[in-house]
Amino acid sequence: MQYKLATTTWDNKEIEAIQKVIDSNIYSMSRCVEQYESEFASHFGSKYAVMTSSGSTANLIMTAALFFRKENKLQRGDEIIVPAVSWSTTYFPLQQYGLKVKFVDIDLETLNYDLGALEEAISNSTKAVMIVNLLGNPNDFNEINRIIGNRDILVLEDNCESMGAIYKGKQCGTFGLMGSFSSFYSHHIATMEGGMVVTDDEECYHLLLALRAHGWTRNLPKKNKVAEKSDNWFKESFRFVIPGYNVRPLEMSGAIGSEQLKKLSDLIDQRRANAELFVETFKNDDRFLIQKEIGTSSWFGFSFIIKESSGLNRSEILKMLERANIEYRPIVSGDFTKSESLQYFDSEIHCEVKNARYLDENGFFVGNSHEDLTSEIKYLYETLLSLK
Question: Which of 43, 187, 214, 370 is catalytic?
Fold first, then answer.
């Protein structure tokens, strides 16, 4: 490919970290995962961090934790608001826990919530709002906080595509009660597979620890907010107190994570440098909408939405990109209200999601990277310039 969707962020440091785990002969979650969690929490300014097997399972236990809190816990049938454009595993845990999912339209410029639609959608029935920072771009949290006001509404953040994004000096993923991250190959850092949930809430932290590993007490501290724990290690070995999962990460993934985290600032700096060139190159191209940055984006990728006035056809554009060896993808899962899986949801669509549907039919994105993409971005521009 002349313009790849993603490239590896590894060098010999990650290989050495893997070898150390092999030499230790301890492969399941242990000290390396614990160290990475501590470093991650410190880096992002959270009290607690819990590593999981993926960003998807991070969303799963983040959702599950809301159902086992001692106070203000969610119940099946409660309403949660979500944007109409995100990845599938933003939504699936909500369905699996029986929440009523209300879809709200997105803004075609930011690709995050249409804030006017969000304000209209919030009602006395709303118990939670899922904030998704799409393709690295922060939401306008000041405006969202104003919209929510003093109402007793939980805020969660799916920050899986936006590690390192910043709004008003604060790391995205840390604005809600809990926030999720992903370290899949194509994301800002890569731990083979891996995810993380961060929180400042001690009860949520303890629930996440239990939910990650079978719902048992073994990984809980002696004093915790889930269950009274005895000093009898034999009894506590297989004591199950809430219905949990096994979504633990590998010890290798934790070891790799510590090495990747050291590089994160530099990796994102180059993504932002690439984005500066991308925006400068395409900002005056009246055929496309490109993503409008809110706060300081970590620029997961570069999106294009074809303007109706351009007369361009997406199928023809994608064929041209393919011939030019430029990788591309849909903008996340597009308009999720069109998903066949929605037949299994308790859901409603607030008003209409015309922007999500327009994006679904007229959008695509190309990759960004920690490598200098000057030549690739120029090549992309020259390729698109030849469109008739």
Answer: 187
